[in-house]
Amino acid sequence: MERMPVEDLKEIQEKKLRALVNNVYNYSPFYKRKFKELGLHPSDIRGLKDLPKLPFTKKQDLRDNYPFGMFAVPISQIVRFHASSGTTGKPTLVGYTENDIRMWVESLCRGLVSCGVTHEDIVQIAYGYGLFTGGLGFHYAVEKIGATALPISTGNTARQIELMKDLGVTVIACTPSYMLYMAEYAEKMGTSIRETSLRIGIFGAEPWSEETRKRIEEKTGITAYDVYGTSELSGPLFTECTERNGLHIWADHFLVEVIDPKTGENVGEGEKGELVVTTLSKEAMPLIRWRTGDITILETEKCNCGRTHPRIMRILGRSDDMLIVRGVNVFPSQIEHVLMQIPELGEHYMIILDRIENLDVMTIQVELNQKVSIEKPGEILNLKRKVEERLKSVLGVHANVELVNPGTLQRFEGKAKRIIDRRKI
Ligand code: DLL
Fold this sequence. Notes:
Number of helices: 10
Strand order of the largest sheet: 4-3-5-6-7-8
CATH topology of the domain at 323-424: GMP Synthetase, Chain A, domain 3
Shape: globular
Helix content: 25-40%
CATH class of the domain at 323-424: Alpha Beta
Bound molecules: 5'-O-[hydroxy(phenylacetyl)phosphoryl]adenosine
Oligomer: single chain
CATH architecture of the domain at 323-424: 2-Layer Sandwich
């Protein structure tokens, strides 16, 4: 399936799209209403070329139809609920049928295998278990490929490191920020992740940069892979393969588009835009043209690994987490990119926004790198100026930089929350 000719994949997609449209028209009150409003009938959708005729589905639709209004099956067929973490507001509820869980597990299994996880691995699952999809999503996929799951969830970092060593854990799945914290914690305990058997990390659920990947790999000696997914689509679903040139989207289950968030039009191949996903196999809560809000680039060229399914590049930010500072659009990922390229700086930072005398003021607190000792008083000032200049040249707007001692900023076990916007208060 993963190496199927593109034309055959397209055929599967066309068939599944037609079935999906019929299904939601008949069984989802929400879509029936939407289709009627647009004067659209399932027979108008004959193939992929008709996709732009279909309406988008947005987070607000899920909120407005909370809790069960988006479901296309009776509750008796739902075998599990999850709820999104509410990255951008009120959490949303997701339901799964037995087949939905199977498809989710199968998708992540393909991903795990593509980044080299085998049945011989011991996988420490340090994503949260519970309503968040990370823990249970990985758990079932790890068991399915016959590897050994260590369902430790988040927190209790000393025990995480202790078990990692004692059991000879070889793979870890957690947020990239938690991995950095764990590496730092291990050093405080007088040990290092390098002294463990860990060889692969599968990191996601929050934005991270190529520079952060380098830092994690330098500190821990492991190979770091990106994993993406959202609760609405199921949970963690797509990973990079060993080529590490994008995350494979399993096209027999998910149809992807990348659009201009302002116009809703598809952008050209290789251009940045918002990821839009149509679920082709989901039963409980099928989604048509789901606007993820995540900014990426689509790549349909066959990958060197031999897999034919399209890839998305690392998530570059969210169309809605874009900060507007003095009228300038700023993505937090741009800030991280600049900071992580400066060796004197550590990995932990906070972005604070204030409005002082009607003007936006951006302050970036960033920790100094533990390994770099700055002794002369003038050096700190020089470094601060250097960081401010680099940020200004990339962002096009000034940010005050506060250099703080290593270990002083807040650490996160789950998703990191690095932005404090006090302008609205
Ligand atoms: O975060 C599902 C997940 C669990 C993915 C474990 C990966 C690993 P939600 O809580 O619904 O689901 O949040 C989804 O998180 O729209 C992105 O904005 C962000 N996100 C997830 N993975 C990545 C990633 C899970 N690899 C939201 N890079 C998404 C950047 C990511 N952002």
